[in-house]
Amino acid sequence: MRRVVAELALGIRLAFPSGRHGWLRTAMASAGVAIGAAALLLGASVPVMLDARQDRMLQRDDSVGLHEVPPGQTLIVASVDSQWGSNAVRGRLIWPESPAAPLPPGVPAIPGDQQMYASPALQAALAGPDGDTLRRQMPYEVVGTIAPAGLSGPHEFAYYAGYKRAEALVGVNSWRVDRFGYSLDDGEPRQGTYVVVATMLATLLLPIAIFIGAALRFGADTRDRRLAAIRLVGADSRAVLRIALGESLVPAGLGLAAGTVLYLLVRSRSADLRLFDVSVFPADISPVPVLALLVVAIVLALSAGLTLLGFRGVAVEPLGVFRRSTTWNGRLWWRLLPLAASLWLLRPVLTGASNPDEERAGIGVVLAVLALIPLVPYLVPLAARVLPSGSAAWQLASQQLRQNPAASTRAVTGIVVAVTGAIALHATFGAASARREVPDNPADPAYILQAPGPQTDAAMRARTARFESVDGIRAGTVAKYGLYGSPTSYASGHLVIGDCESLRQVATFDRCAAGDAFVVGDPGRSITLDAGKLDPAPGRKLPIPSGARPARLVGTDAQNVTFGLLLTSTPAAVAGVRPWFVETRMFASEDAPATAAGQLRGVAAEIDPLAMFTAIVPEYDKYASLRVALNLGSAVILLMMGVGLLLDVASRLHDRRRLLGVLAAVGARRSTVIWSVLLQAFVPLLAGLALAIGAGIGLGAVLMRLSQVPVTFDAAAVLAPVAVGSALVLATTVGVLLPAARRVTSTEQLRYE
């Protein structure tokens, strides 16, 4: 045991005084390990981070459900959640029924009427350039700040406002609470979102592992000479292997230390980061101890495993290091097993299942990305055999590709993984962005406001005019009453009252004038208003006007309503009846300003802060933050892949220097040798990119199905990553090869000591 420790220690000592190339190799390997370790430590912190966020949300939750709290030491609460661009706004109107009423977490005191406590992010937005538009949604005086204990994260838009009128609305739009901390509905992102995140992480982290491997292989020739010298003084092959393992621990240890520092830097700036509506405080980020130990074990095992793998087929002898040259004979069947497993996991999505298991689909997508790694080396000799024979340069390249395709595809594999993920993710983001610009049903409005309470014809016209004061908005307001049907019938009906322009937004008919009436379906000779809502009960009866003409509902209403009556004025029989709701439908034109949604929400809040405002068309791109993260991550990954390609090309030129020297000695032209080396780089690239295009399109279709967007592909989303990957390989290969062309094609490479 003492001997083993001494040999490992010797390897650690040899890693430092190893010359310029050795220091460069150690620095590159340490940098790759540092980035990977920091990413893994951040991943190990996710459970703690989400638990801390969820605990704060649970402590402030005020959803009593169907439970009715009796009055006493209670607080009246009304929800006025809203939206501001890509930020969800959590608003609560509160009023105490007792001096001992419970306080919301993070709020030091109950605000007075028309006063509010707001989160720091919301206060910053109110003071921003569009703050006046946002303030229309919450026209309350800011008297304090919500503490972190009452926020899900530092970027959350939230406020608690005192609202005395809520006392009269208990049971209608507000409710009582005697404490905070009920059941939690945290509103996590929609189906498909986590699968997209998992795909992005696999796309970004797998190339890092490949880069670590390339960095650890850099400068191996210097290490080989040292090991041969150690073998000459009496060390056996096992001792040499242990010394090499000790040397590999140095970049792993330095990388872990640097990765920890990088992790702490990212942690300190975590309050500036946000994904969807999720933001966290720096104190929330700490790795799970078991997972942190697992990160260390993974890094050390990866370093040791790559070192051992590098000695496969290598004999370290006292006179030098010899590599056995054998013809590559790869098997296809085992390379297809990961792909088959991923297809089996994705089968519910591919067959169109209504509610596929998202965790299973996420594992399937990540496994599909991993399945590309063993397939790339198999495609290279296949392409070399299929392509026709030609020049001497191609014959030399083809022979090398068939004999050792693994060496030719080591660096290209990272490009293939990155391009596959980029194609899938950019195609999904593009399809989602295109879809959100229009409603699912073209006849549906972009926004709807539904407010309870009686309404006159003049008041509905005035409400329409208020919304149409926003540029690019066309609106219409109608009053909707539920119709009573047979208790055994599931048919639903509506009585809709509004002017002609407003009725044209919900139905189609031949002509319209004041006083006209229209029937939908077959309501019979009369209709009965529903006075029970949740528990149907017959109300007032209204005869069908004799001159009523047929009409047909459009949009979503046509799917939900089977019969009804449309009137252009309110009849005396229902003048005193409270409608189920008064609905204003808003349509946005192409020239509507980007702030139209915020202005409409402000008008709605001025009319009734408790009214339900619904955006049929999403007001923001929920994948915008992911797109930014993908672009930044891709830039870093491509930079690392470029460095890895430089190292790999330099290493391959060094390994083949004697072969190239033999070619020069027998009279091969320099151009032939250079073209041979270039073809050895481009054929694996083309084979890998062909695989990446097919896999990226397939994964993109899966992600679109999971994200519930139409499966469509844009040529730019597919070709842009391919072009970037191709340009990267071309630039790095030519950048290394051309300066070294004279040296590697010289007979001096045959000299050997």
From TrEMBL:
Family as reported in the entry's similarity comment: Belongs to the ABC-4 integral membrane protein family.
Residue span, ABC3 transporter permease C-terminal domain: 200-307, 633-747
The entry's keywords: Cell membrane, Membrane, Transmembrane, Transmembrane helix
Main location: membrane
Residues spanning the membrane: 27-50, 194-219, 239-266, 287-312, 332-350, 362-380, 628-647, 685-706, 718-741
Bilayer disposition of the protein: Multi-pass membrane protein
Pfam families in the record: FtsX
Compartment(s) of residence: Cell membrane
Organism: Paractinoplanes lichenicola
Superkingdom as given in the UniProt entry: Bacteria
Residues making up the signal peptide according to the UniProt record: none
Protein name: ABC3 transporter permease C-terminal domain-containing protein
